Amino acid sequence: MSSVLIPKEELTAFQRWELASFDHPSKGRQGTREEVELATVAELEQIRQQAYDEGYAQGHEVGYAAGAQQMHMEIGQVQALMQQLDSALNQVDTQLAQSLLDLSLEIARKMVGTTLQVNPEVILTVVNEAIGSLPHFNQHAHLVLHPEDVELVRKHLGDQLSHTGWKLLSDARIERGGCRVETAHTKVDATVDARWKRIVESIGQDKSWLA
Fold first, then answer.
1. CA distance 62 to 118
2. Domain shared by 41 and 95, yes or no
3. Which residues does 178 contact at the CB level (< 8 Å), separation at least 6?
4. Which is it for strands 179-182 and 167-170: parallel, antiparallel or unpaired?
5. CA distance 144 to 150
6. Burial zone of 175 (CB within 10 Å; 0-12 exposed, 13-18 middle, 19+ buried)
7. Whole-model pTM?
8. Pairing label, strands 142-145, 167-170
9. Helix boundaries (H) for 14-146
10. What is the tens place of the pLDDT at every residue in 158-190?
11. What is the CATH number of the domain that holds 197?
12. Which residue has the higher pLDDT, 146 or 28?
């Protein structure tokens, strides 16, 4: 079979086939791949940042709520402490005021006793007040005083009392400066203890040592 040679000019209607090259890819294709990789990294970074922001916001909200709860708890504790402190201070004020009042009364009582010792003639005023407290001037009444006051009253009021039938009696248990007036129907306690007790009770106090 004879070979048929085709002239080169007749081959123009066909493309020439060449073996594919296995060299490195062109710069255009390499650039596209790098762009894809950069886009992927950017997306991952964006996702990571978004997750971080969401977690931070959630953690901040939870932390704020916990902090607010703790703050309210501490405020409540402080308020309770202030109430206890205020109550304690009020109690101290009350106790201090009572102590000062007791001290004042005790000092006043001692001053009264000192006054009676320095000026025993005070008993004369006491006797006149006791007599004046009776509904009417009773005859045959008894005036009971400390023995030393009996002598003093007898010296200054003896004639007046004996003229009306009054009798002077002594009782060492009665403190100087006080007396008792006794009639058939009436008894007036003008002893120092009784008068002092009435004074103390008038200011709302009740102390057994004053009786």
1. 83
2. yes
3. 123, 126, 145, 146, 190, 191, 192, 193, 194, 195
4. unpaired
5. 8
6. middle
7. 0.45
8. parallel
9. 27-118, 122-132
10. 888 888 888 999 999 998 888 998 888 888 888
11. 3.30.2320.30
12. 146
Average confidence score pLDDT of the chain: 70
Question: Largest Cα–Cα distance in the chain?
Answer: 196
Instruction: Report the side by side order of strands in the sheet with 167-170.
Output: 167-170, 142-145, 179-182, 187-190
**Other CB atoms within 10 A of residue 48 CB:** 10
- Residue recorded with tokens 């708890």: 73
Kindly state the helix (H) or strand (E) to which residue 145 belongs, with its residue range. strand 142-145
- CA dihedral for 171, 174, 176, 180, sign (positive or negative): negative
User: 207 in helix, strand or coil?
Assistant: coil
Domain carrying residue 90:
29-118
The tokens describing 177, both together, are 């400066």
Question: Is there a domain that residue 98 lies in?
Answer: yes
Residue 55: what residue type?
A: G
Question: Which residues are paired to 83 by β-bridges?
Answer: none
State the total domains in the chain.
Answer: 2
The neighbour count for residue 140, using CB atoms within 10 Å, is 10
Looking at the structure, tell me whether residues 154 and 183 fall in a common domain: yes
User: How confident is the model at residue 199, as a pLDDT?
Assistant: 74
Q: Token match 């009020």: residue? A: 90
The answer on pLDDT for 209 being more than 50 is no
